[in-house]
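Action item from last meeting closed. Structure (139 res):
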C-alpha cells in the first residue's frame, strides 16, 4: 500500500474510507447493540467522529466522568425485542443495497448504450445502412 501523493486525491480517498468506517461502526452498533465511537484524523489534522448513542457520552463514560449504573442497564425483554426489529431492518437494508447496486448497473448499461454517435455524425455509408434497417422494420 502506497501513500497517495496528490492532495485532492488524498482528501477524496480519506472521505470515502472515513464514510466506510463510520458505516461499519454504525452497523456494529445496530447489529450488536453496543456503544461505539470512532475518531479519525485527516491529513490536515482535522478530527472526524461518529458514535452511538453519542461521542460525548461514550468518551465521558470511558474517562470515568459518567459511568454506567445498574439503573441505566437495559431490560433483557426490551433488548430482545429491539434485536428482532434490528434484524428485520438490516435484512431490508441488505435487500435495498442489492437492489440499488442492480439499478446502478442497469443505469450504467443504459448510459453505455446511449454513447452511439448522433445521426448528424454518421457517415453516408452508415446512414444508408440505417435507412435500409428502418425500411426493413417498417415492412
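Sequence:
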Amino acid at each position: 500500500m502506497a501513500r497517495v501523493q496528490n492532495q485532492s486525491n488524498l482528501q477524496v480517498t480519506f472521505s470515502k474510507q472515513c464514510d466506510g468506517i463510520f458505516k461499519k461502526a454504525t452497523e456494529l452498533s445496530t447489529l450488536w447493540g453496543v456503544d461505539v465511537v470512532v475518531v479519525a484524523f485527516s491529513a490536515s489534522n482535522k478530527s472526524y467522529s461518529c458514535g452511538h448513542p453519542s461521542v460525548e457520552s461514550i468518551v465521558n463514560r470511558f474517562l470515568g466522568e459518567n459511568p454506567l449504573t445498574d439503573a441505566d442497564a437495559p431490560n433483557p425483554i426490551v433488548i430482545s425485542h429491539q434485536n428482532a426489529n434490528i434484524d428485520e431492518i438490516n435484512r431490508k437494508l441488505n435487500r435495498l443495497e442489492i437492489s440499488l447496486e442492480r439499478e446502478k448497473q442497469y443505469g450504467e448499461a443504459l448510459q453505455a448504450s446511449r454513447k452511439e454517435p448522433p445521426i448528424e455524425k454518421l457517415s453516408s455509408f452508415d446512414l444508408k445502412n440505417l435507412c435500409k434497417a428502418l425500411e426493413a422494420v417498417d415492412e
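Note appended to the action item: The beta strands are 36-41, 47-52.
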